[in-house]
Structures are given as structure tokens and as C-alpha cells.
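Minutes, methods subgroup
Present: GH (chair), OT, SY

1. OT presented the first of two proteins processed in the latest run. Sequence and C-alpha cells recorded below as shown on screen.
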Amino acid sequence: MKVRWIAGALMPLALAMGGASALAAESSQFGSISVVTVADGLEQPWGLAFLPDGRMLVTEKEGRLRLVAPDGALSEPLGGVPEVYDNGQGGLLDVALDPDFAANQLVYISFSEPGGEGGGTAVARGKLGADRLDDVAVIWRQQPKLDSGHHFGSRLVFLKDGTLIVTLGDRNRRQYIPDMKAQIGKLVRINRDGSIPKDNPFVGNPDYSPDIYSLGHRNAQGATMHPDTGALWTVEHGARGGDEINIPQPGKNYGWPVISYGREYSGEKIGEGTAKAGLEQPAYYWDPSIAPSGMTFYTADKFPTWKGNLFVGALKFQLLVRLEVDGNRIVKEERLLEGMGERIRDVVQGPDGCLYLLTDEDDGRILRLEPAS
């Protein structure tokens, strides 16, 4: 079931922004909240992952990977990071830890890899050392590489079975989307070494690239696993309207660019309308577009009334969206941090039960949402 959010339908949680690094919120049904600056001075941070010791790995789009201490101290850029195709939306993008990180110290990064006449999304794996990634190898590459700086994706999500989902965009080259041997406008699923899971939906079909998991995606920049069901949830950019939350199923086609709830930037209709037999409907969509990015389910006890809620960062509207979920349905939306004036690129639950945000700015910050004392 799809649900549309209409501008002005719900009142946002008001936050009093200003002054110090800890910003107290006004009272609400959730109590008071503080927004604390953990670290600043990051240049367009894109992805964040917590290490078991409480430190954070943070990517900067230009191509730097940094360690951030719990007190906000930034390391020098780590060595071993591959060269990136820093063009438009491309660069060093997401970061994720191996499910067995405590034993193997393996880290995965997604990035736009230069090659051909441009670049394409790629995934590399390396072992985290004191000041670098060691034994770095690219384990997966998007094909073909294109001369476009748009729509690279690319979130990394490990599923319960240990396989890795890589979200990909259409590179703003829609003519490649019908090509099922091209990983353009698709999600892919790989093993941790880059090999192909034998139960991928198109394994054995010569007309399809065997790494494809689902089809018809414009540019998914947020993805997470449901903490109870283990299902994959994604959020992707529409054009002018039509941002979508999907719950991708293996082998299913989610419609782009044949169907959409958005319109071309020129105002013209996209494709064939909003529905067509054989194409999946979104679980939720926005019109106008909020330009969604990172997303996570909240599972901790720090904010008991938020438990089970889904959080999505917004770039264009510069806010955080809280979504109440009932099964596979989104039943209520609330907009937080309106007026902060910074693009929210990633949303991650910390080991302390707080929510951590990355602001996608030239002087980007790591923010922590915590109950006000």
C-alpha cells in the first residue's frame, strides 16, 4: 500500500536552534531533545559507520576516509583509499563494516571509480589498520562506466544472511535501464568477497547480469534492514516529486522510468503514468520532493517513543523525517530539525542509543540527537 505525504499535513517537532554546540529543543510529545555537535570541519561527509570501540569511520566525498574519536577529534585521512571519480554526485560515498569485523577488521567502501570516459560505482574492501586500509581490493564494479556525474547511489547494507546490497542509480542515462546486463538503475547483491550468491533471482539467465537483485530504481541513496523482519528498505530520489520508499523484493521491477509519481524538471509527464501491470508500487512517496538520503530504523531505548520508527535524512528540505511504521505500511510522518539550514546526508543509530546525523556541507558536521537533561 502506498501513502502520499502532502505538504503541511502534519505539524513538525520544533527545535530551538542557535548558539552553542548543544541545542535544546522545545517540549513536545516526546519530551525535550538536544542536538549536539560531535565533530565539525568535515568536507561533504557522506557515510558513517561505528566501530566496536565507539570511534566512527566517516567518508568525505572528495576521497578522504577519517576516523573520528567519541570526543570529535578527527584523524588525518587514512591511507589505502582508491582514487575516486570526484565529479558531481560522485566521489567517496558509503562505508560499512563486515559482519565479522571484530574478528577480521574488514571495511567496505563504495565510491565512483574513474575509467573509460568517466566513471562508475564500485565497492572496495580493505583491512583497517592504525592509519590506513591495508590489502585493499575492488570486489565489484558497475558496468558500463559513463561520462556522467549523476546518480551513483550508493548505500551498502548487509542482510541477515551476510550478503551485501549495493544501491545504484541510473546515472542520468535512462537508455541503459532496459539493458539487463548493465547495472544501471538496479540494486545488486553480492557475497562479501564480491562473488555472486547462487540464489540471486537472475542467476542462470543469460539475458541478465547475475548480480542484479531488483530493477527500476532512479537513485537510491538510503537503505537499511528492518530490525525484525530482516527485509531491505530503500529510499530513492524522484525527479520533480516522486521520491520513493520501497521494500525491494528479489527480481521485482520498481518502475523507473516507466512509472513515477513525479514529473520531469520541465514539468512534463514521466513515462506512462503512476501505475502499470507488472511494475511495483512504492510503500510511500513524497510530492514535492524532499531529496531523501540516509535512513535507519530506531531500535534503542534512549527515545522509547521512537522505537520501531524509520528516520530519513533530507537534502533539499534540510530536515530529518520520522516515520511511524505498521508492518509494511507507513502511517504517520513528522518533520524534525526544520530551520536548521543544513542538508542531512546520513542517519545512523549509535551504540549509545542516540541518533547521529551527517550534514552534507563544505564544513560538515556530525550531530547527535539525545534527550535533553
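2. SY then presented the second protein from the same run.
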Amino acid sequence: MPNPLFSRYSQGENRVTASILAVFERISFALVERILQILCETPEQSLLTIKNQVKLGIDAESIPDGVIQASFSYLLETKVVAGKVDLVQLQSHLKCLEAIPHVIQKKLIVLTPDYEKPGVINLLPPDLVIWANFNTLHNAIADILTMDEAWLTSSFSLVSEQDRFLLKELVQMFLAEGLLNSGPSDSVLIVPARDAIKDYLKYSVYLCQPNRSFQRVEYLGFYHGGSIDRRIAKILLPPIEEITLTEDGIRAVQETIDELTINRLNNLVAHLKKEKEEGKDNTERYGDCMKVFFLSAASLEDTHTIHLKQDIKNDLRNSNNRPYAFTMGQRYVSLTALQKNPQTTTELLAT
């Protein structure tokens, strides 16, 4: 019988852990695997292997039609108060992990609300211990829930409505427990931008599906053509969560939005309408329901925009030495690290 969805444990960390596991128990294995891959930064390391026509062993005389194999063990230690990671406790967990027989993949995931990695984590073997905060878990969930063109070229299947509901409820619980957005905001949101970069260069906006969930950040960057664009835009106004990009759409929300934002919306919609009438690019934007970010401009004259020395080339590779995208949905990186002008994403993430 599945665990109760949102646990009634009185102790905070037990309640949060039980709720995470209850949601993982109810959603598809593919989604759980994807979340764990993001947390552990192993984007193509499969936890479950399914193959056709496999010869089992060198001397095997028969070849079965198929094989399903799983050999992994992930332990989870959760803290709901920053600065409470206990080295002795984690060392004890590692002894338990190492004692589990016949397991190829072993990890101890330490999940905390700390903004930066607790120092004691550095005293433990990095191949076995993975630290993540609740922001990272939120980002992993947001990443797999993102519905955009990246799904058309990825190997990931679409998320069912039930899975989507359960994961959103889990994020809401994190918010209610005060586990998200802890610490100062040094994060920059990086979004896939094959088309979004055109919107930014023309209109100084980022448009995406309505009510899409993001962390609160001050800056936004664009990943396109295998690189992070050198222009890191400042988010000038609180995003509009949902609006139809027409004159009527603006009138429908004008009582809830300040005059400056209304003026920017009018200007954006006017340009989109003109392009539609002239049959130019982005004609599909006019009349669409979108979430809208107003950003600082790409030009050097706009001092709000951070201009790096060069685009940051993505050179990430998996354990099989195959390249993979820096982000399929959204990712957060350190503003401090960006301002050091790394040349590659490996250098960026190592800073």
C-alpha cells in the first residue's frame, strides 16, 4: 500500500522526507530517475536498464528476448534547518550504504535548505555523497515539467497530468515549509533560447508558457547554439504570470498591473501585431497566452545588462563521453561565477 501522500509526522524532516518519497512512489519511474539524474548531475546514467536480445555471459548458450536490470541504492538524509548537517550521522549512513551487497550505483543524497554546501560534505567521498538544497530539487522538478520545444528533440516522455499535479503539490509543500529561496540571490536563470533569443534581441522580453514556475532571481541568461549568450539581462519588473498578447488581453489585466508595465505591454503588443500584419517572424506571438518578463536591452548602452567577454561554450559530456545540452528546461548558475568570464560551462560550474 502506498504511503500517505503528505505525511503527518510532527518532526519537520520526517514529514518532508516522507512526503517526497510518497510523491516519488506515485509518479512514473522515468520522472523519478530524471529528478535523481539532475540532483546527482549524471544526466544519462540510467538506473533501470531495458534491452532486447541480450546474451547473458560469455558462455551463455541462449539469448532471451529481453532483460530488465536494476542495481542501485540511493539513501536520502533530509534536514529542514540550515547548518544542521551532522558528520557522524552521515558517516554512519555511508557504512550502511557500503554494506548493501550487489549494488553497482550507490549514493547518499543529503538534502538541506542551506544556500551553500555545508563544509562537512567536503569531508566525505564525493563519488558517494551528493549534496543538494531544496532550490535544486525545485529546479529539477521545474525542469521536467517544462513544456517547450526542447521536448521534441529530447528522449524524455511527456509528463502526465497526475504526475504534474503531484509534483506541483510537493513544491507547494516546500514553499509552505519555508524551504525554498533561502539565502541571498546570487542565482541567474538560464533558459533554452533557440527562439527566445530572437524575442529578447527585438523586444527585450522573455516569453514562455503562462504560470511557469521559477525561482526569484534578478538576472536571466539565454542558452542557444550550444553556448550561454554573453548578454545577461536584468529582470526589470515582476513577471506577468498570464496574459493574452492582444489589446483586449491588456485591458483584461490593466487594473492589476502598474502603469509602467501597461505601457511596456502596449508597446510589445503593437510590435507583435505589426509583424503579424506584415507576415514577418514571430507572427504566432500575437494573440498567444504567455508569461512575460521585461528585461534590460541587449545593447552595450544599457548598463543594467551584464556583458561578458564571450559566449560560454557548452562542453559538458556524460560518462560515455557524449555531449549533452546545458539545459533542456531551465537551470540556475552563480552570477559571481559568470562575472569571472569562464570560456566553457565546465569552467563555469567549477567556479
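Chair's summary of item 2: Residues 43 and 141 are 14 Å apart (CA to CA).
Next meeting: continue with the remaining queue.
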